[in-house]
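Quick check before the chapter quiz. The format below is the same one you will see on the exam, so make sure you can read both the input and the output lines.
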Amino acid sequence: MKIGGSKFLYRLKSLFNGHSLCGYDLVTPGAILILLLMGIGAIYSSQSYRGGVQWQAQIGWAALGALLYICASRMDYGIFLRYAHWIYLLSIVLLLCLWSPLGERHFGALRWIKLGGFAVQPSEPAKLGFLIMAAAMVARSEMEDLTGSLREILKFLLVFCAPMLLIFLQPDLGSALTFPPILFAMLYVANLSQKFFICVISCALVLLSIVAFDIFSYRLFLDRHGLNPVNNMGLYEKHSILPLKDYQRNRIISFVAPDVVDPSGVGVSWNLKQSLIAVGTGGIVGKGFNNGMQAKLGYLPKSVASNDFIFSVIGEERGFLGSSIVLLAYFVLIFNGLRIATLSRDRFGTYLAVGISVLFLTHICINVGMTLGLMPITGIPLPFLSYGGSFLLICCFLQGMIQSIYRFRMSYE
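Here is the expected output.
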């Protein structure tokens, strides 16, 4: 027992101490701190009239996230390569738990599992598991040409489709949309043949055409039965071959033609209209901290103001300058992650850093785009700003992994 314990302690110590360590990269922690402070302030001001306490919980999650960041940064990231399969399988098991007695349904979506006194959103660990598994598979494969890599690509697609499909069925379209950019970015960095990407783009265009035809058929169905998008009660879903919910179709129509699906502006396009009002009235310098009205007075609903539409709150109170600071901090975060990817001495570290950076970029583009009316509305949070424990902890851990790649890169010469 003593010998076994000594070996265990030695292995545990080796995870946090390398032989060729570099110093800490301070750029990323600085950007994260700025985002966390602005996020907590925005959560507080969005609920101050109602006496909300989510900002206090966010401080607690941020403190726990800082601990996770430190632990991840001090671990040799090579451990994730060795246990990639187990991490991925665990994330799939967590997703499957949604359809067990542990699963909880909120607002018609099955996205949470109850573990003790905590509610966990398994789609967030699934992103971590997929990132690690995909980076490990690409690092262990030789990407030469499309024909020679076909078998490996099929494996990637299987690993890719399993979590994405399970997340889509919750339904959580926003989180499902974050998976394709990660995989394609890794394969692009791996110098896969351009024929593959041409095939993927062609398939994507075909899929978009099918979705467009489905939306058109949905609109005809409503007109034929004298229904409107608000009271159709999901009647069209059983007539479609696509696994889309009618409320998702309404969101797509509200983005393409808002006057058609919601001419009065009080239905599915309400959140977007209030978000545009918040950002537009913020001006150059904003209304000042805790002086915004859209969220506090309930025009921007409390169910989304502190998470999916937190950027709107910042735009109203901090104005163009405050919003620019947020975007600049994100630019520094992503650019530094890609810079560290180029510094990595092994393929796994490079692909992992690229995948993490692309995941953050996808979240930022979709969330900011939907608050400004540039993309359809999907329930996807903003890293380090939106309220939520599961997402914040995963974000901290992922950025800690990038720090680990920077610190331990000399160990893989």
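If your answer matched, good. The chain has one domain: 25-412.
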